[in-house]
Write a structure and sequence with these properties.
Radius of gyration: 32 Å
Largest sheet: 3 strands, antiparallel
Distance between the termini: 105 Å
Order of helices and strands: HHHHHHHHHHHEEHEHHHHH
Number of domains: 3
């Protein structure tokens, strides 16, 4: 009985479509290994548009390196000119997210997620990388990537918790470490002296220092800072005015150009909650300086700058500080007063900005992170807080609520 023998069939390898694309591209644009770097660079964007992912780019680079019967291989420099390595270009987080959202490949999401991770174990790098990854997740969501995919492939819970612990430690050190503030300028002592100030008497340099702390001022702003009440015409409300705001401050040293002449009013916040009383104390100090009864903290009577006397005064006991530190003491005290019993880091950040009358958010990456439950390793690090983008979108409403807490 004859047995049927099976012969193994060898499959013919499929042609690489991207290599065909390359050959057609080179022929169309008349490009060869003899073309100049400038000519190749000119056509690089067109070739890049034809290649959908890194695998296609790799196939084309291999083909250019090997060459064919019809053409010579390209040199390394010319391959780089025709097909630049995208990895050498620093992509923004938004660009990474757009690419991943367009491609929809979870491998790309993972690769870009880890590319934004920490490069070392430095605390600053851990916090910054957690912030970058948080922004990446938000941009992926905006691009239409499903939440479940983001949670699985673009979320490092351990990194988030490590970042949160660092932030919690820094917040406590920055906001609650009273050892950094001399006892004389503690919140209780400053409040007591402010309450006992008698505007019928001549102010002292200690009163001057306390008023600077009270309003979180730069010493030089004694001359320029104004506290005003605004009641706008309902038919012509200024652009800077926000509903239910009453008291604003103007006059800032670092403004330039038109803002120097017409400074934009900014919400008022100080240790002294009563804005009328705060304005009275500021005017009291300013009038004494104008009358020559009290020396200005920065300028002489002739207008020249000389901060040495006030600096020397603050070096003495019981003050033991520097003029530039007074503003820092004031904003911390003001944020504690208006922050409630258990303020969140975001809440304190907003209060600090109001107290210091900051026009823009000039904070380091440490304040832009995903807060989570740093006490429990099993908790979801992002379930109990607003994300960075949510914070930005609701910031104005939250500031309004904060102001209303003590004005009304």
């Amino acid at each position: 009985m004859a047995t049927k023998t099976t012969t193994s069939k060898t499959q013919k390898p499929k042609a690489n479509n991207f290599v065909l694309v390359l050959e057609q591209f080179l022929e169309k644009h008349n490009l060869t290994a003899d073309s100049t770097l400038e000519q190749l660079s000119e056509h690089a964007p067109k070739l890049d548009a034809l290649l959908p992912d890194w695998m296609a780019c790799r196939c084309v680079k291999v083909a250019l390196t090997r060459g064919t019967d019809n053409r010579r291989s390209f040199s390394k420099e010319k391959i780089e000119a025709l097909l630049p390595d995208k990895r050498k270009r620093k992509l923004t987080i938004e660009e990474r997210a757009k690419y991943c959202a367009k491609d929809g490949d979870f491998v790309d999401i993972i690769a870009n997620h880890w590319a934004l991770g920490p490069k070392n174990k430095d605390e600053n790098e851990i916090v910054a990388s957690a912030s970058r990854q948080s922004t990446f997740r938000a941009k992926l969501a905006e691009g239409g990537i499903e939440t479940a995919i983001i949670e699985v492939f673009a979320k490092d819970k351990k990194l988030i918790q490590d970042s949160n612990k660092i932030q919690k430690k820094r917040t406590k050190k920055r906001m609650a470490n009273l050892n950094r503030i001399p006892k004389h300028f503690s919140l209780a002592n400053v409040q007591k002296r402010i309450q006992n100030m008698d505007v019928s008497k001549t102010p002292t340099r200690e009163d001057l220092a306390d008023v600077i702390v009270m309003l979180s001022m730069r010493p030089a702003e004694i001359r320029s800072l104004q506290i005003n009440y605004y009641e706008p015409d309902p038919s012509n409300i200024p652009a800077w005015y926000k509903e239910r705001y009453s008291w604003y401050c103007t006059g800032y040293l670092k403004n330039k150009g038109e803002k120097k002449k017409n400074p934009p009013p900014r919400p008022f916040l100080s240790i002294e909650k009563n804005p009328e009383r705060a304005r009275e104390l500021l005017t009291w100090i300013r009038d004494a300086i104008k009358a020559g009864k009290l020396r200005d903290s920065v300028y002489t009577e002739s207008g020249t700058r000389n901060a040495w006397p006030f600096n020397e005064f603050l070096k003495q006991e019981p003050y033991r500080t520097k003029p530039k530190n007074l503003r820092d003491y004031g904003c911390k005290h003001a944020s504690r007063i208006h922050g409630g019993k258990n303020p969140t880091p975001q809440h304190l950040k907003l209060l600090l900005r109001i107290a210091m009358r900051q026009e823009s958010d000039r904070l380091d990456a440490g304040d832009h992170y995903a807060i989570g439950d740093t006490e429990s390793e099993d908790s979801d690090p992002e379930d109990e807080h607003n994300s960075e983008l949510e914070l930005e979108s609701t910031e104005n409403d939250e500031i309004s609520d904060i102001i209303n807490m003590y004005i009304y």
